[in-house]
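The protein record now logged underneath.
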Amino acid sequence: MTSLTVEKPPSAETEAPTRGKNSWARRLTPFGYLSPTVVLIVVLMVVPIIMVISYSFRDNVIVQDNSVFAGFANYATVLKDPDFLAALKNTFIFITVSMVAHLLLGLGFAMMLNSPLLSGVTKAIFRVVYVLPWLFTIAVIAVIWRLLLDPSGVINYLLTTLNIVSDGVNWLGDPGSALWVVTFVNIWSGYPFFMISLLAGLQGIPGELYEAASVDGANPWQKFWNVTIPQLRPVIISMAVLDLIWTSQQFALIWMMTGGGPLNSTEMLSTFTYKLAFSEYEFSTASASAVIVLLLTMVLAFFYVRQQRER
């Protein structure tokens, strides 16, 4: 006779710990994947920010062993410094003009590349030409434009040949023109990002909206103002706030082209803070300046996050 063995089903007491372990493992798995990124963020971002904030409330940090608590004295010193006020003014002009120009140029070129009047080959050629400034690094852009803007450079040669100017102009050495020249270079190097983003937004607008506007008798300007702009508004706002944040932190271009000169005419908050720390070795005051810049940037970041949530 063949004996049949009946397996006893596992009891509830055996299954409960197993289910509990699996449940905890499933809950902890995402944190395990995120842990390397969290560690990097804490080590490279959170810890340095906390250290800089603590330095800003103390005096004689880094250069001396015995630092003393100074309260808000470093912040008062920075806010009363005429160079800081000049840097704040220059930064405001720099980021505002750059953002507006990026928006206008980006939107204009994006609409041209999205126009049905141009053939596919023509659009491809223009896309390559317009994106070229975005392919260069900031260091390369700074070196190229310093050579072009040199008193004996190509730009002055062309201007003197066309009898627009009589002698070579020292564009970066003149306090009256240096800030505007640096702003122009920043606009030239940054507009392709706006152009690509707005072009993607334009291509995502349904054609039925323009057809409905044509049926209602709308002219091209009315279509642009009542169809294109409302559809692009989320992209425009997001890009504008991001551009303000990025441009306010621009350092390499300013430092490599003018170093903040001449006569502080191109001094920005970033270069001002850098000079305090590594030229004058005033690390406490530099930390206070860095915290002020961080707070100003956080205000812009707040509006960006708020706009994204509303979107």
Summary: The two ends are 75 Å apart (CA to CA). The chain is about 75% helix and 0% strand. The mean pLDDT is 86.
